[in-house]
Amino acid sequence: MFLFDVLQRTYTVVFPPTAPKNDDAIRIGLLGASKIAPFVVVNPAKSHPDVIVAAVAARDIERAKKYAKTHGIPIVHASYQELIDDPAIDAVYVALPNGMHYEWALRSIHAGKHVLLEKPSCSNAIEAKKLFNHPLTTAKNAPVLLEAFHYQFHPGFQTFLSEVRKSPGAIKNVRAEFHLSPGILGSEDIRFRYALGGGCMMDAGTYPLSIARQILGREKILEPIDVRYRGVQPGKDGRVGEPQIDEAMEATYRTAESVNVHVSGDLLHKGKWPSFFPASWTRALPSFKWPKASVTFEPVLVDMPNGEDNNSSQHFVQRTLTMWNPLIPTFYHRIDISDEHTLRQGDHVTKTWNETKYKTAYNWPEGDRRAAVYKDWWTSYRCQLEEFVNRVKGREGSGVWIDGAESIAQMEVIDRTYEKAGLKPRPTSTFEL
Ligand SMILES: NC(=O)C1=CN([C@@H]2O[C@H](COP(=O)(O)OP(=O)(O)OC[C@H]3O[C@@H](n4cnc5c(N)ncnc54)[C@H](OP(=O)(O)O)[C@@H]3O)[C@@H](O)[C@H]2O)C=CC1
Ligand SMILES: O=C1OC[C@@H](O)[C@H](O)[C@H]1O
């Protein structure tokens, strides 16, 4: 049954049912013939009655035409500006290099288009403040602007968060990681270019950081206390080796409440094989790791369990919550709720045992109004598109949203992390409007 469900969800993700389009469907244009747009917008739009992917623009018109043909997009524009000036377009998806997000999001809002903006929202916090606090963005009837942290829109991550909120004890440690295996990114990839806003903390690392901040609550300030990175070795795997680029990064933060936060990202995860293989064999071999987030709480004193009624004993429970695969949850994810029980007499531990419950959430809980709308096979991108459209249309939506203050706060931590590492925050665009 388990394997059948995985295969069925996966099949439906790849071949989604196509919805007939409503007359007032939102017409989205793609800025850039990017690799990611088919996953984030083109495929999810097929099953959405209120979205039509109407146009694409690329720097090279021939490339745009080819892309349009592959993905069945009717209009091709010769430049990004031409697309955002097209009155037939209501919204744009900005999947340009990070260093171009600020300028093209602002230009699009200026042209009155709603914007789905790839993460990270900008190159740094200076840009993020300018974008999200711009009078064009904050005006009463301003277009919708959303940083595309897709994983937050999936019921699986929201279920994990609600487990965090209802767990006993204060949060003690948070750990989150996302490591990409080699072979996914080419040597010329935008992620290895400083001028384009590249680096691991701007890419794979931005997710675990965002997840940790979601777990803690956005008002918590993360102060980096130890940041290490692996730079790109020039010439290695054909990469240019820019000195400001972090190919991998590990950062430890502390909050004012003394919570320890550990975030780890890698654009080229290699060599982490079981120790019975000699390290000299495996050092250069690609390795795979599931994206993961975990939270450990302080132990709390609870009632004695039945049958252990000893007045001089105390019963403590310490919880650890783990979410496996918060980033691509539709195929498979799991939430482990693990309670470590300890009976103590004074300083003496008399008994310990562990209880673990497992949860998954491919949809909202049964009976919840949202469960009637969402489908188990919806990817986090499809969920995100649903909420973007709900906002544009002024509908109620799931309640999950990422506002400008959140996007700014995320960029502020990224900047502080680079500074602590001894690297420069990513460069600020000179574009003004
Ligand atoms: N939400 C998610 O899961 C993911 C999000 N992303 C984000 O999406 C964005 C794009 O990533 P991805 O699709 O992987 O990247 P691509 O390299 O495939 O796309 C980037 C696009 O930017 C355009 N571009 C404009 N100027 C430049 C330039 N100087 N150098 C290179 N490209 C340029 C290109 O457009 P043109 O077609 O005009 O040549 C290209 O299509 C990034 O912000 C990334 O962080 C990426 C992957 C996953
Ligand atoms: O989801 C993702 O996976 C691969 C990354 O490089 C990318 O930018 C990210 O959004």
Automatic annotation (TrEMBL):
Matching InterPro entries: Gfo/Idh/MocA-like_OxRdtase_N, Gfo/Idh/MocA_domain, GFO_IDH_MocA-like_dom, NAD(P)-bd_dom_sf
GO function terms (MF aspect): D-xylose 1-dehydrogenase (NADP+) activity; nucleotide binding
Substrates-to-products reaction catalysed: D-xylose + NADP(+) = D-xylono-1,5-lactone + NADPH + H(+)
Keyword terms, alphabetized: Oxidoreductase
Keyword field contains Oxidoreductase: yes
EC number: 1.1.1.179
Domain Gfo/Idh/MocA-like oxidoreductase N-terminal: 26-133
Keyword Oxidoreductase annotated: yes
Span of domain GFO/IDH/MocA-like oxidoreductase: 169-271
Superkingdom assignment: Eukaryota
Family: Belongs to the Gfo/Idh/MocA family.
Name this polypeptide is given: D-xylose 1-dehydrogenase (NADP(+), D-xylono-1,5-lactone-forming)
Protein source organism: Penicillium subrubescens
